[in-house]
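Service request form, structural biology core

Requester: graduate student, group of Dr. S.
Request type: structure prediction, single chain
Budget code: on file
Notes: please return the result as structure tokens.

Sequence provided:
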Amino acid sequence: MNADFIIVGQGIAGTVLAHRLEEYKQRVVVISHPSLSASSAVAAGIWNPIVFKRLTKSWMADEILPELHAFYGSCGHKLHQNFLSERAIIKPFTEVQEATLWQKKSAEGNQYLDGKIYSDFDLSEKDHATRYSKVLEAGNLHMQEFLERSREYFISGESYLEDNFEFESLSTTPDGVSYKHIRARYIVFCEGHLVRKNPFFGFIPMKPAKGEVLTIHCKGIRLEKDIFNKNLFIMPLGNDLYKVGATYAWDKLNDFPTDEGKEELLAKLQQILTIPFEIIHHQAGVRPSVIDRRPVLGKHASNERVAIFNGLGTKGVMLAPYFSGILTEHLIHGQPVPAEVDINRFFDAV
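Core staff response, request fulfilled:
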């Protein structure tokens, strides 16, 4: 089989990059396996243009959000399914100073902060009304549907190989790469936190964080569309189902849910929800964050046929469309990668 690109990993990074390369009329083969990282598959897919700690705009939000809508909208047309839900994020206030700071930041021109303060929201009948405001232009990508429909699409186009990637089966030349029966011009690794075991890119200073989420069934939560955020998020899924998360842990870096993670989520949830609920699912994944909390992309310093697209962390849904375009322009047209996200920022330390 001949292709232009081999992509290893079909999480959010690999899936988005594959679709982006197809926009450039490139022949892509995606290689993935269920044993690879489950981070994307269990994620809620929320995008949030605000950093709550400082009430500032998320990094590059103004440039990234238009690309997010354009890209996933195009994928929806291509795959005959809408994958985006635009939702506000409800942010309750526990102190007067929080509401004052919120209004100040909004008045300074942060268009993602609703300047109004509301006092008419009860999470359930038994909860007391609380003062809150909203993050605007937020929402979520229906991650599981997007990944599965994309996988079906790649399979139907004979562009998908379910395989536990074997590095000993990969060979490279100045003109291209070969993997088993596949020949291509480039190979791009999109393995998430498992890049730590990659012989080409294992030197990247990753700081992966394990996250756990619950899906609960609960009658009586007064959320129809918007996302509630107070020490955790509660996102409605329909039919009285809600996704709740997430934890952060820097040990036990695997995809297995833990009792500790469940108890942490339950303790936080029970502080804000006073009505009974049932746990339907408990899932875990490892977020592929880099130590400087920026994506990492570009070609290997000593093998230009080998490239990487990784480090999207907690904001993969937001970052993937924009930076897949940057990487595609780099690989096809030789455009430079911005220094802040360039893999070369780490080669000097090797």
